[in-house]
Amino acid sequence: MLSAIRQRAGELLPDLIAIRRHLHMHPELSYQEHGTSAFVQQKLTEWGIPFETGFADTGISAWINREEPGAVVVLRADMDALPIQELNEVDYASHNPGVMHACGHDVHTTCLLGALKILHELRGQIDHPIQAIFQPAEEKLPGGASLMIRDGVFGNPLPAAILGQHVYPELPAGQVGFRPGPYMASTDELYVTITGRGGHGARPQANIDPVLIASHLIVALQQAVSRWNDPQMPTVLTIGKIIGNGATNITPDSVYLEGTFRTFDETWRRQAHERILQLARGLVEGMGGKVDFRIEIGYPVVLNHVSLTQAARARAVEYLGAEYVVDLPMRTTAEDFAYYSQMMPGCFYRLGTASPDGRHTAALHNARFDVDEAAIATGAGLMAWLAIPARA
Questions:
Q1: pLDDT tens string 155-197
Q2: What domains does the chain contain, in order, with CATH numbers?
Q3: Catalytic residue among 138, 188, 336, 372
Q4: Which candidate in 28, 33, 78, 80 is catalytic?
Q5: Residue 56, phi-psi category: left (phi > 0), alpha (psi -120 to 50), beta (remainder)
Q6: 138 is catalytic
């Protein structure tokens, strides 16, 4: 079956490139993927692949051999784009001003469609059910994965395994990467308003300066990383936005901050939240101000089930060759695939998309991000191959 999958992936590549380019030209933001969902449904209908809708508004669940006995294996792709103005000068550049597939979700959707077509053609040789989910809104809290779960996309008992892949411009097309265990960080959003008492900048004794307080708080919050956290546990606390609408001679009444907190351990994550809030209240009130500190809970840690991921890596070596399969480091970026991996054995791996000539190496979420489309054959074929024996 390996050779048949590899052959079909190569034969389907021109059609899959056309699908990817259509999706790339028509990107849609999180929770707005109506056209993308309709296009996916159209392809599934053309190919005779049964599917259901009604999950997270635009989400889709498709099936191969649904009536077969045995545990279900799930394949997943996300469909949403980002609020970025594309700068690539290509025929398939985004037609939607200010919206772009800068994170490769057009490739993810295309690869899953290709894998489904291959699996559908080979369904007589497959002895277990395979579910494929196309989800909205990976890029925006609360995350389409959580909403798909909320809307009952999975049956009872839960599937045996779920697999997802993500484009990776740090690897050349044709290569893939795996990491068992914790792979991607949890992500929480920090929203802070510090209120003082504004006034003339030349009379600080009459004011309660929220700019000064905010400066102390930003520095003090790094204790969460440098002194409260085990140095062996990767943790990031970054304040990325400060608004203090004063002037050279005006102390404002308030300062607003936004930031992110990320780590790889759920127990430490909860402890850190409590200590951050305690620190903020104590410091700000001690300097005479008031603080409204809100932590919006985001995605949990992406946990790659160890035995499932090791098995998937071994299967990738069979499909591609050992020289095309690499080990990945942990990443403090986040993914709502984490919701799936917290409830069932999961494997989230990377698909290389850089060209041999050095093109297509722009970072994810960059206005010039693009992929070597030869990677689509690798992505579709490998996903089909991994779905067949996938077990934890």
A1: 999 999 999 999 999 999 999 999 999 999 999 999 999 999 9
A2: 2-184+301-387 (3.40.630.10), 188-296 (3.30.70.360)
A3: 138
A4: 80
A5: left
A6: yes
